[in-house]
Specification:
Distance between the termini: 79 Å
Number of helices: 19
Largest sheet: 11 strands, mixed
Strand order of the largest sheet: 3-4-6-8-7-9-10-11-14-15-16
Shape: globular
């Protein structure tokens, strides 16, 4: 070694540079040998690829269940078959059957991220993706399982806004799970119930469960800790997390939950979400009608139909197909089950964007508004009228005063119940409220926070600037910290402590506001919100 050093010193500078570059290249190659590019899972050997950051390995299109086709259509997910040799997990699998993304130019999300009408689509779609920073299977890194949203009708794991790489850089193994949607994921029918009374519907939710179970069994191969799994989702994905939280058979399956814009409570019942909460018998009759529309009379006949034909007929039928209260996996209203502590008692991070989903009184006159108040609040109607400034006689302003964010309302109810019942599981509340740039003046639209929690702003068409990237870095750090320990607090990537994010309690009903920067705001809810939350418990 001493001789070699002396020899190097005698070389011309150009040769020294060349040797240094070769040394650096060799060193990188040597380090890359230790990345988990190949892993053995229960069904065979997988090979992944370096992500944009070569310190991260990504495995795409990993089967976690058998193809849900033929006799497996409208059936609970079945075990994935084994494969021979090495499965090259290099590409995302086809998306679930749904309306073709990007075709409807009136759709806001067709320019945001559902932009590619040529993206492959197939009924064979039960695959997941894994991003891992691990260099050893012994690292036991925290795991984040992500469930996408889209109203249970749309969405896919290949959406650019939730690329898992940036979270993985923070020492987290990230998994995104696909599941069946619409008619393929949530059809009910008497023939299905007769065949499988323990799994008569909700196949999309069962797909999610199967994906999480696969992670539990196999994630150690990717350097993940099967005893430190967080599930998360947004919109219908957040609603899915609520379903997984309240499914009794999921005990011990995961350790923490993230619910982004996924819990709702409408103040004015006429503004509820259509299609949700059907019982099995109601949903079965909907299935009978759809079979009539297809021109078939039995499950056997329906399973023989071409998947593309069923997809197109379902789009023509224009019905909503979503979770059903089957009393097997879905035991009831997930929000009420959550309040009653009929759920996995794990830490939950939850919140909303500042401009999404308002519950608005559906009235056209002052008299109608007063009648509504008296019907809803009885002897407390006068207080409600006072809080909404009814005496001003300005109907538009009164309606505005009475409008309430449904997600915030639900979270404040949940926080109160968490304290009142003595559950006291950690809840962390946020409100996403930065300025969002763009010619469309979209504001903090539903799902805008995904660009930030996943720190994928560079993939977006919007002209984000430095403050947005700083906020995204912080939000991603908070999320990674929560995934790691159930507590979002910790240091920023700069090495500085981030603003303290305290738990939400009935005594301290405060939350983190993600505005131009992260700031924990100790501000009480307004008087109307306090009144409505109090009234909820008075009548429930």
């Amino acid at each position: 070694m001493e001789y070699k050093v002396k020899t190097y010193l005698l070389l011309p500078m150009s040769n020294m540079v060349r040797i240094n570059l070769l040394h650096t290249k060799y060193k990188y190659r040597e380090e890359s040998l230790f990345m988990l590019r190949k892993v053995q899972v229960e069904n065979g050997l997988l090979q992944g690829l370096p992500a944009a950051d070569p310190r991260i390995t990504v495995f795409k299109g990993v089967p976690f269940a058998a193809p849900p086709v033929g006799d497996n259509r409208w059936r609970a997910p079945q075990p994935a078959p084994n494969w021979e040799g090495t499965l090259k997990a290099f590409e995302f699998a086809p998306i679930s059957m749904q309306a073709t993304p990007g075709l409807n130019k009136e759709d806001f999300y067709a320019r945001e991220w559902h932009v590619d009408p040529d993206i492959p689509m197939d009924e064979d779609n039960l695959y997941l993706n894994v991003w891992t920073p691990a260099t050893s299977q012994d690292e036991k890194l925290p795991v984040y399982v992500w469930i996408f949203g889209g109203g249970f009708q749309y969405g896919y794991t290949a959406e650019m806004e939730f690329d898992g790489e940036r979270i993985a850089r923070r020492g987290v193994v990230v998994v995104t799970v696909n599941y069946r949607l619409g008619i393929f994921g949530f059809l009910s029918h008497p023939d299905i119930t007769a065949e499988a009374p323990n799994a008569p519907t909700n196949f999309g939710l069962l797909d999610q469960k199967a994906g999480i179970e696969w992670v539990k069994r196999n994630i150690a191969a990717f350097g993940g800790d099967p005893d430190n799994i967080t599930i998360g989702g947004q919109s219908a994905g957040g609603g899915s997390v609520m379903h997984q939280l309240t499914a009794p058979q999921n005990e011990g399956l995961f350790n923490k939950a993230v619910v982004l814009s996924g819990v709702f409570a409408s103040v004015y019942q006429n503004r509820g979400i259509p299609g949700f909460g059907k019982n099995l018998s109601q949903a079965e009759q909907d299935g009978v009608k759809f079979f009539d529309f297809l021109g078939v009379s039995s499950l056997e006949e329906a399973r023989k139909l071409d998947g593309e034909y069923v997809r197109l007929k379902a789009l023509e039928y224009k019905a909503f197909w979503g979770p059903v209260v089957d009393e097997q996996f879905v035991m009831g209203n997930t929000f009420k089950l959550f309040l009653e502590n009929k759920r996995l008692m794990v830490p939950v991070l939850l919140g909303h964007t500042s401009s999404e989903f308002y519950s608005v009184p559906d009235v056209s006159s002052l008299d109608e508004f007063k009648d509504m108040a008296e019907q809803m609040f009885g002897p407390d109607a006068d207080e409600f009228l006072r809080l909404t400034n009814y005496d001003s006689a300005d109907l538009d302003q009164i309606i505005k005063n009475a409008s309430v964010r449904t997600i915030e309302y639900a979270i404040r109810i949940a926080g109160q119940a968490n304290s009142d019942t003595g559950a006291n599981t950690p809840l962390y509340y946020y409100n996403f409220d930065p300025e969002i740039p763009g010619w469309d003046n979209a504001g903090t639209f539903h799902s805008a926070d995904l660009w930030f929690f996943f720190e994928t702003l560079a993939k977006c068409w919007r002209p984000f600037v430095g403050k947005h990237y700083d906020l995204a870095r912080q939000m991603c750090n908070y999320l990674a910290n929560f995934i790691r320990s159930g507590d979002p607090n910790g240091k920023d990537s700069t090495g500085e402590d981030m603003p303290q994010w305290d738990r939400y309690t009935a005594e301290a009903p405060y939350g983190m506001v993600f505005g131009d920067k992260a700031e924990f705001v100790k501000e009480e809810p307004n008087d109307l919100m306090k009144f409505l939350v109090k009234h909820y418990f008075k009548n429930n």
